[in-house]
Amino acid sequence: MRIGYIGIGIMGLPMAGNLLRAGHDLSVFSRTLSRCDPLAADGAAVCRSSSEVAASSEVVFINVPDTPDVEDVIFGAGGISDGAGAGLIVVDNSTISPRATREFAARLKEKQVDYLDAPVSGGDVGARQGTLAIMAGGDEAVFARCLPLLEVLGSKVVRVGSVGMGQTAKACNQLFCALHMLACCEGISLAKGAGLDPGIMVDVVSSGAGGSWALKNLGPKIVGGDLDPGFMIDLLSKDLRLAMELAEEAGCDLAGAKLAQGLFKQAQKAGLGRLGTQALCRVVD
Amino acid sequence: MRIGYIGIGIMGLPMAGNLLRAGHDLSVFSRTLSRCDPLAADGAAVCRSSSEVAASSEVVFINVPDTPDVEDVIFGAGGISDGAGAGLIVVDNSTISPRATREFAARLKEKQVDYLDAPVSGGDVGARQGTLAIMAGGDEAVFARCLPLLEVLGSKVVRVGSVGMGQTAKACNQLFCALHMLACCEGISLAKGAGLDPGIMVDVVSSGAGGSWALKNLGPKIVGGDLDPGFMIDLLSKDLRLAMELAEEAGCDLAGAKLAQGLFKQAQKAGLGRLGTQALCRVVD
């Protein structure tokens, strides 16, 4: 199939690479064009705009940081909308606003372009291994057409509802990631304070009812002082904003998520925004 | 080996049963003696006191709710201390104060009785299946003698340090359990509020970087309205008190754990104390 991938970052690079290796014709574009070099070396066509990617693709994936970035990729100058023919499917792997997602889908529908929001979870490790969890929102027929591609990217691919619901599920997912990271930082802080080897604690707690993906994958990094991203504090902080906006609309008072949001903001103010989310440990006593 | 088990509750019953099925001679005692009936039917000797259990055992396990209960079982009238001969090993599977644990061990040492704190995690499911995580504190030689027994009870058995450190690790474990449960309640609340099927959310988030033991095992119970314990709110609230005492001694300011502690107390005040920890959802909006 002729596939496009726009946004070649920590997640987009391995995801696009997996689509390429699955035998698809791949066109790519990224704001920093040099990031496409490894894919070009493997046979991908590097385009000069999102519009150009759209013109040569049946399905175009997007993976960029925030809602305005997706809007720009689709509707900005040289955007997907300029190059899109009827029948194109846009699949958004970014994590953005559910409300804006529904607006984008409605605007594209006028051009007979279909839309699937398909944010992912599982980190750069899951992206490389093709073991991501993918939470998709969109029409069943559109989902069915994209499923073989999504199954290249993830090992758990679920249509969670209509357009926007993928992003809603991702907002929930990020709430879990944030609170689990807070638990990691506090648990490790408590172990250290009480004279218990934190590495041993992380190992044994991971195996019981206190276990989490975060503890198993990022706990050892906190203990070892490895604060490289993975997934950046700036991005999780943005995702928490989306989750709290959704909570506000829904009338949910989420005290834990609110606390975590405050601590991640504090980490940003402390200049830790471009480190991995595990750098939250720097602001948790 | 001649084994004793004192405290035949939700956890103690399946754990003692696994030791019995592994071929050991088992003596048991519990405050509510009728709880020993299923074990008696399988060949265990039911004793009339902890002292009697100790007198007929090489290793005595304890599994009771709180620090004063362990003290009573060991040092109270008809307690282990009365019946213990030199060389007995006391293994405490309860979750209690690390500081009191060190005191108990020191007092028993005067009688040449060895002590291992070996609290467990993995819920009633892990207890039945023998797949608990066991975090043990004590001398290496004592741990080595108990290891074959602990490996009957758990699939992850780790000596985390000297006497008391098992309880310290368990306090960390309970901090994770409490914060993960908070995440479950808030995530499910957010999904419902935003019109997303909470069961689908739990399923897909469990498979990604937002996953946890709590979400996978207790998330579906929250969604289905099954609030039976499992593990009771009263007990997790007690464990959080132990964790916060430890944090206080260590000078750690754990804002997340403190928030969770307040919410679990609120659940107790609302009369939910004897329900499963997932009943926290009743006080999370």
What does this entry show, briefly?
Chain A is α/β, with parallel strands linked by helices and 285 residues long.
Question: What does this entry look like structurally?
Answer:
Two copies of one chain form a homodimer. In chain A, helix 9 crosses helix 12, helix 9 packs across helix 13 and helix 10 (198-206) runs antiparallel to helix 11 (213-224). Helices cover 53% and strands 14% of the residues of chain A. In chain A, strand 1 (2-6), helix 1 (12-21) and strand 2 (25-29) form a beta-alpha-beta unit. Chain A has helices spanning 12-21, 37-41, 50-55, 67-75, 80-83, 98-109, 123-129, 140-153, 165-193, 198-206, 213-224, 233-250, 255-269, and strands at 2-6, 25-29, 45-46, 59-62, 89-92, 114-117, 120-121, 132-137, 154-161. Chain A starts with a strand and ends in a 16-residue tail after the last helix. In chain A, the strands form two sheets. The first copy, chain A, has a six-stranded parallel sheet with strand order 3-2-1-4-5-6, sandwiched between helices. Chain A has a three-stranded mixed sheet with strand order 7-8-9. Chain A has two domains: 2-161, Rossmann fold, CATH 3.40.50.720; 168-284, N-(1-d-carboxylethyl)-l-norvaline Dehydrogenase, domain 2. Chains A and B meet through strand 7, strand 8, strand 9, helix 9 and helix 10 of A and strand 7, strand 8, strand 9, helix 9 and helix 10 of B.
